[in-house]
Design goal:
The complex is a heterodimer of chains A (211) and B (245).
Chain A: H1 9-30, H2 34-56, H3 59-76, H4 86-108, H5 113-122, H6 140-153, H7 157-168, H8 173-180, H9 184-202
Chain B: H1 2-18, H2 20-24, H3 30-42, H4 44-61, H5 72-117, E1 119-121, E2 129-134, E3 140-156, E4 159-169, E5 175-182, E6 197-201, E7 207-213, E8 220-229, E9 232-241
Antiparallel strand pairs in B: 1-3, 2-3, 2-9, 3-4, 4-7, 5-6, 5-8, 8-9
Helix pairs in contact in B: 3-4
Classes of the chains: A mainly alpha (211), B alpha+beta (245).
């Protein structure tokens, strides 16, 4: 099991090199250099799209979120002060775009904000029911991924963001605390709750996850 | 007695579940780790839960990466351009309603300044729509053209500037182009032969491009437009008559 509290030295130096390159590109972006924006977008579009896809489980929604997020980056690049790393800032923007979009969808569906807050706080007690696939739809290797994605889609949005950031994007607790702007302790406890919720949702298919 | 036992077991099960994450990450102290182990030995339900929890953790890290669609970047630039057009549109009424008084007060002063420092005239360019061609084969790029929709010659303190308004035709996708200007005695060329302008053209809006010229506008300007489409350089050269003698 990978230990997220330690990272190898070469990884750290590669991150450092990446940050230096980012800061050079960012400087050019601030001056309105479209080439630099091209480079920035190309560098991050794959990971941002994958993040958005895992949050939504839908290709069209993921494309919308990715392009919305990059548009926000384009508009707000001069406000990025470099207090956090660019990646952290970028993932925070994507997270906000996703949460804003879900909020908009909820308003459209005439749900109240109170219910939304309650969902966020109460964790997996207020699940939106999603029909599970029938056994005949199950195919071994892809099946698990689909089932897991299906289960992720049923988590409340904040838990979904945390699970995807940690388990799929490989972010550390510290990075998530910066992205979500909450203390590490809160991240850990909420993430633990999210994992248990996920396991609970997967309970009907538990035989697929037992050795 | 039975009820008390069940309550006690439920509490212990809940506590055990709280330890699952730390256990998987090897962050439990030895005493807590032993307590969890003992509980899992005695409680079949929690043991199964722990095994599925552990397996789920592993499977999450193996979720495949979903490839981003190829048109994502173009889509972002299209949004940027649409936003710029929308801003321009929303700015005008605001300018009229909110700034009318301030504008008219400043207008006289501004006009005096403009007439003394800058003079604008039509450059007399011949409107054109040139095909973009592949550099090597010289074959036209299907259905994509650059159109000259406006032009003017501005004279100011820094010399003469030829402003050409260009847009793409027959494509919804913005393309990044480089523009070079050639063969003009009075044309100010940037050092190192870098493009005099680079940026995106779209079919949705006209992009006005200022090209610096010398004291006198040359009578013929060669504008070389190039872009990189899918790793291949595409280009075309347009000769523009300014009507000067």
């Amino acid at each position: 099991m990978p230990n997220r509290f330690q990272s190898p030295g070469d990884e750290r130096s590669s991150v450092k090199g990446r940050n230096e390159l980012d800061s050079e590109i960012l400087q050019r972006c601030r001056q309105g250099d479209r080439d630099a924006f091209d480079q920035l977008f190309r560098r991050y579009q794959q990971s941002i799209y994958n993040f958005a896809y895992r949050l939504t489980g839908d290709a069209d929604e993921a494309s919308d979120i990715t392009s919305d997020a990059f548009l926000r980056v384009f508009n707000a690049i001069n406000t990025f002060r470099g207090d956090a790393s660019f990646t952290t800032w970028l993932f925070r923007i994507v997270t906000n775009v996703f949460l804003d979009e879900k909020k908009r969808q909820r308003v459209r569906a005439h749900s109240s904000l109170d219910e939304y807050q309650s969902d966020v706080e109460s964790g997996y007690e207020r699940q939106v029911t999603d029909p599970s696939p029938t056994p005949s739809e199950i195919v071994e290797s892809e099946e698990r991924s689909e089932l897991i994605q299906n289960a992720i889609n049923q988590l409340p949005e904040y838990q979904r963001v945390m699970v995807v950031l940690f388990h799929i994007e490989g972010k550390s607790y510290e990075e998530i605390s910066h992205i979500m702007q909450m203390p590490i302790g809160t991240v850990k406890s909420r993430l633990n709750r999210a994992r248990l919720a996920l396991r609970e949702i997967m309970e009907p298919q538990k035989e697929l996850f037992l050795p | 007695m039975k009820s008390a036992g069940r309550t006690s077991k439920t509490v212990r099960c809940e506590q055990a579940k709280e330890l699952f994450s730390d256990s998987v990450e090897h962050q439990l102290s030895t005493p807590l780790s032993l307590k969890l182990e003992q509980h899992l030995d005695q409680c079949e339900g929690c043991r199964q839960s722990y095994l599925t929890f552990e397996r789920l953790w592993l499977d999450l890290s193996k979720m495949p990466t979903v490839a981003a669609p190829g048109n994502l970047l173009a889509r972002v630039w299209r949004r940027v351009d649409e936003q710029a057009v929308a801003r321009r549109r929303s700015w005008r009424p605001e300018m009229v309603w909110r700034g009318a008084l301030a504008f008219s007060a400043a207008a006289a002063l501004l006009l005096i300044t403009m007439f003394s420092a800058t003079h604008t005239e039509h450059a007399g360019l011949v409107p054109f729509a040139g095909l973009l061609r592949h550099t090597r084969s010289n074959a036209p790029v299907p259905n994509v053209q650059v159109e000259l929709v406006s032009n003017r010659l501005e004279t100011g303190p820094s010399g003469r500037v030829l402003v050409v308004g260009l847009r793409l035709v027959n494509t919804l996708v913005p393309e990044r182009v480089n523009i070079y200007v050639r063969n003009q005695a009075n044309l100010t060329m940037p050092p190192g032969d870098s493009p005099v302008w680079h940026g995106y053209l779209t079919s949705r809006s006209v992009t006005e491009i200022p090209l610096s010229v010398g004291e006198k506008a040359p009578n013929l300007i060669a504008v070389y437009v190039s872009w990189n489409a899918g790793g291949r350089l595409q280009s075309n050269t347009f000769l523009i008559s300014t009507g000067s003698q």
